[in-house]
Amino acid sequence: MVKSIMYVLDKLLISTFCFFLVICTSLNGSERFFNLGSIATTEEVLGWDIDVRPDGLGAPLGSGNAIDGEEIYAEVCAGCHGDFGEGMDRWPELAGGEGTLDTHDPLKTTGSYWPYASTVYDYIYRAMPFGMSQSLTVDETYQIVAFILNMNDIIEDDFVLSNENIGDIEMPNRDGFMLPDPRPDVAALGKKPCMSDCNVPIKIIGKARDIDVTPED
Question: CA 60, CA 76: separation in Å to the nearest integer?
Fold first, then answer.
């Protein structure tokens, strides 16, 4: 009996919602309940369009240096990442790790791993501080990024980081994500992949039976 009542209530709820949706979408924009279906304004689109490309395109107008960024970093970042980017507890480290990426225990920090300064800006502006994302102003974000870059000896403390030069910062691992293509046809043809009638030498480097991985049953 209870299941039957719940089934009827579910159907009634779905029917009511569908009716409401049809009414809302069939009216003109100015007459729709809660303005459902309205076209986003230019200001609303700009509020969502906050990404910054690796070359710096899309970086908002603003600037900051590490000297000013140190105070802001100490207030909103150091509690998790440490005063010097050393990381607190299990929170990520932001500085150090040079020369560790090809070891058994790589330390991926802003200085050792991140390829673009604009990506650092983009991430901080979108998602930091933890639990208070997008609470930083544009200039505060530039100041924090400048301080982090300075901790990693990438820029001087008085260097003014801005929308005009953030895409030009040379990060230590800038080329670390561009690896050679290991495919033999690419290597044999000067990195130009063969697309048809390919004749690439084949070299057998091991057999399943020889290395004892062939199933016996």
Answer: 21
- Bridge partners for 186 per DSSP: none
| Cα angle value 51/150/60 (rounded, 5°) | 25
> CA-CA distances (angstroms) from residue 209 to 44, 150, 202, 204, 212?
64, 56, 19, 13, 5
154-210 pLDDT, tens digit per residue, is 999 999 999 999 999 999 999 888 766 666 656 555 556 667 777 777 777 777 666
Q: What is the value of pTM for the model shown?
A: 0.65
Nearest-Å Rg of the Cα atoms of the chain is 27
Could you tell me which residues are beta bridge partners of residue 64? 161
**3-class DSSP state of 162:** strand
d(CA 153, CA 147): 10
Q: What is the pLDDT of residues 93-127, one digit of tens each?
A: 999 999 999 899 999 999 999 999 999 999 999 99
